[in-house]
Write a structure and sequence with these properties.
Elements: E1 3-8, H1 15-26, E2 29-31, H2 33-40, H3 49-66, E3 70-74, H4 80-90, E4 94-101, H5 105-117, H6 125-142, E5 148-153, E6 160-166, E7 169-172, H7 175-187
Parallel strand pairs: 1-3, 1-4, 2-3, 4-5
Antiparallel strand pairs: 5-6, 6-7
Helix pairs in contact: 2-3, 5-6, 6-7
Amino acid sequence: MPTLYIIAGPNGSGKTTLAKELIEEDGLDFLNADEIAKSINPQDISKAYMQAGREFFKRLNEILIEKKSVIVETTLSGKYHNRVIENFKKNGYEVKLLYIFLESPNLCIDRIRFRVLKGGHGVPNEDIIRRYGRSINNFLGVKTKVSHWILYYNGGEKYIEIAQGHYDNEIILNEEFYSLFTRGNKDG
């Protein structure tokens, strides 16, 4: 059965790093609007976001038609993911959601600042702050729509699995971090 892997979380949480680990392990296609924008305009990806978004959905549709497994990356701060999940499920896909979080938008800002110093792309602070709480709230709403989900904390040396679930069933593996996560949707 083909699988749609959604790697989600606030800006700066470590989504691309986790996605690249999965790509190496399983050799899957990877769709990331930022990477597409970088290929369109390497000097200023912000000028290529609209074109990159269109290209992202074009490629995603091609993968769906070909029934190939794919990894997509998103902040989960918008609403398009609901349509994508339903469309892929309707077409026989298993949908797995891997969500990564940090304890605050300020830590996300710090991580992005460090990424920019190393040559990576920036994100305006106001966008990071605005998307942070939306992302967490959207995860809490969408996790019951996917086949399987895993929640990771990435504020230390490595990813820590906090909880996992299958539709409405969930297992909390770390109460302290899960509480920190659920507070994020109020504090973001």
